[in-house]
């Protein structure tokens, strides 16, 4: 498992940006960690890496926001407020099997609706170490995501 420690929002965005080139349609990226841990900040970087120019805003109240102006569509979801089992109504499966990259904040709320393969990234604050410090842990499930994480690791050591 890959772990990275960052000390600024910009560093978190840069990692999201570096992940983007290896992404393809139907990819599912799960972002977990407390409120303010950096999940949306990471998604901003990922969106920039896909060439999305629009400002990425938290989908907390809308549950999903769609961005179509990049190399691939980005479906950014925050399922914190999704009622139990209502992933069907949202059309989760259609999104996961669709034409874009799926980024899901708070995936524990759709634990029963996850696809077989995905990349989970866990964000942790460490206030004792500094207000802006975060540890990102990458947990790939499936070959494609193993490769993606290996590429990310390589690109961060360049
Ligand atoms: P989440 O989506 O996990 O609730 P956000 O990305 O919306 O979190 O908010 C993270 C907040 O923490 C932002 O205000 C951001 O500026 C701040 N922050 C401080 N340090 C970091 C860091 N290293 N990575 C990401 N965000 C950070
Ligand atoms: Mg968020």
From TrEMBL:
Protein name per UniProt: tRNA threonylcarbamoyladenosine biosynthesis protein TsaE
InterPro entries: P-loop_NTPase, T6A_TsaE
Protein family according to the UniProt entry: Belongs to the TsaE family.
The keyword tRNA processing appears for this protein: yes
Native source species: Levilactobacillus suantsaii
GO CC list: cytoplasm
Species classification: Bacteria, Bacillati, Bacillota, Bacilli, Lactobacillales
GO process terms (BP): tRNA threonylcarbamoyladenosine modification
Keywords annotated in UniProt: ATP-binding, Cytoplasm, Magnesium, Metal-binding, Nucleotide-binding, Transferase, tRNA processing
UniProt GO molecular function: ATP binding; metal ion binding; transferase activity
Subcellular location(s) of the protein: Cytoplasm
Domain of life: Bacteria
UniProt keyword Metal-binding, yes or no: yes
Primary localisation category: cytoplasm
């Amino acid at each position: 498992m890959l772990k990275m420690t960052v000390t600024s929002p910009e560093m978190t965005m840069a990692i999201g940006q570096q992940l983007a080139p290896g992404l393809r349609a139907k990819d599912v990226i799960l972002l977990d960690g407390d409120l303010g841990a950096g999940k949306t900040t990471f998604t901003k970087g990922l969106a920039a890496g896909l060439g999305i120019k629009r400002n990425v805003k938290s989908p907390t109240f809308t549950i999903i926001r769609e961005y179509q102006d990049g190399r691939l569509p980005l479906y950014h979801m925050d399922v914190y407020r999704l009622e139990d089992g209502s992933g069907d109504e949202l059309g989760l499966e259609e999104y996961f099997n669709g034409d874009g990259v799926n980024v899901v904040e708070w995936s524990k709320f759709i634990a029963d609706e996850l696809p077989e393969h995905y990349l989970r990234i866990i964000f942790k604050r460490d206030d004792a170490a500094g207000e802006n410090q975060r540890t990102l842990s990458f947990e790939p499930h499936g070959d494609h995501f193993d490769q993606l994480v290996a590429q990310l690791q390589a690109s961060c050591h360049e």
